[in-house]
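Encode chain A's predicted structure.
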Amino acid sequence: MADRPRLTIDPAAASVTVDDGDTTHTYPFESPEAFRLVSDAWLRVGWDQKYVYSFTWLGRPIIQLPEDMMRLQEVIVSVGPDLIVETGVAHGGSLVFYATLCRALGRGRVVGVDIEIRPHNRQAIEAHALFPLIELIEGDSIDPATVARVEAHVAPGETALVLLDSHHRKEHVLAELRAYAGLVTPGSYIVVMDGIMERLSGAPRSEPDWSWNNPGSAIAAFLDEDDRFVEEEPGFAFNEGLVTDRITYWPRGFLKRVR
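Encoded structure for chain A:
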């Protein structure tokens, strides 16, 4: 793991000190710098502790940071998609979360794609009260036949939003971006998840090549070749506080189709 600054949190002094080996800076708790530094450390500690593996949504495990899901629902409400496509099903909690929003908004349905939907997960998802709003597609997310099955669910004039949360290696994410870009409606988004991998090389459950073999590298390559999309951080729908940046596992993950 690359050398990281030393961070000292002093509750008594209400300050955070960062030492990068050359310079030392101390920030009061009320500063945005202190919040950012502590949040970055919290994300890393949360990774080590598998914090995201402790939540459910309406009975199904949902392996995401709660803040990421709350910010994403703001985008879904703003875009109002007719179809939400997610690659990577796992336990199905995120599919149920999106279906909940569709039900509440009176609009939309969900398609989940995974190369393997394990029988016990499929059974639980299909038994869920919100399953009528969910379609499961088992297949490699970048296989043209799978992509065609997804595309068949979009009717002319409908708005689609795509979420990528399957295999997170650079080449796979880049292939997914290329495969599903045309499905995304102008004004809507592709959301690329787990870009935090770049910052976790050397951490538990990581691989040495995560410093480059990650979703962020795929995003950079995709934006270089497809000018229909821009990286655009969605603004907070409501904010009476001082925090202006997401605390997220999905840095740089919101790609908006602008034309």
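The longest strand covers residues 109-114.
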